[in-house]
Amino acid sequence: MEGVDGAQEQSQPQQQPPRVVERLNTAVQQQLNLDSVKTRAISLFKAISRILEELDAIARTNSVPKWQDILGQFSMVNLELFNIVEDIKKVSKAFVVHPKNVNAENATSMNLLPSL
User: Fold this and answer.
1) For residue 65, pLDDT beyond 50
2) C-alpha distance from residue 35 to each of 28, 89, 91 (Å)
3) What angle separates helix 34-61 from helix 67-93, to the nearest 10 degrees?
4) What distance in Å separates the CA atoms of residue 79 and residue 13, rounded to the nearest whole number?
5) Is the pLDDT of residue 43 over 80?
6) What's the pLDDT score for residue 12?
7) Where is the composition biased (Low complexity) (predicted)?
């Protein structure tokens, strides 16, 4: 009888609770310009993919690459990456939690670990 009960338990699919997706307030999204950062990041990914495809095509045909053009493309990608990183730094400042500085004076008075 125990084997029958075990088989019934295994055949019933376990239902997982629905996944809750947290979203930022629309005003916060607009202020941080997240859509623009995302669009630029996708564009950067596509540009890098194009460069890699060009290098792959050059390698397959054993032709001589135009290094000036390739370096120019990498330079533009590097500049855009730098700009995106700067924008992400601005965004992350809105969400970063800075820990308290601990020194000999306040180490004993501060609750450094959460209560269990």
Assistant:
1) yes
2) 11, 15, 12
3) 160
4) 51
5) yes
6) 58
7) 8-18
The length of the chain, given as a count of residues: 116
Is 0.70 surpassed by the pTM of this model?
Answer: no
Give residue limits of the domains in the chain.
Answer: 31-94
**How far is 32 from 37, CA to CA, in rounded Å?**
9
* Sequence-ordered list of residues with C-beta below 8 angstroms from that of 46, at least 6 positions apart, any chain: none
Assign 3-class secondary structure to 78-92: HHHHHHHHHHHHHHH
- Which tens digits make up the pLDDT trace of 75-104? 999 999 999 888 888 777 767 666 667 676
DSSP string of the chain?
Answer: -HHHHHHHHHHSPPPPPPPPPP---HHHHHHHTHHHHHHHHHHHHHHHHHHHHHHHHHHHHTPPP-HHHHHHHHHHHHHHHHHHHHHHHHHHHTT--PPPP--TTTTTTS--S---
Tell me the pLDDT band of 33, cut-offs 50, 70 and 90: confident
| Spatial distance between the Cα atoms of 72 and 65, rounded to a whole number of angstroms | 13
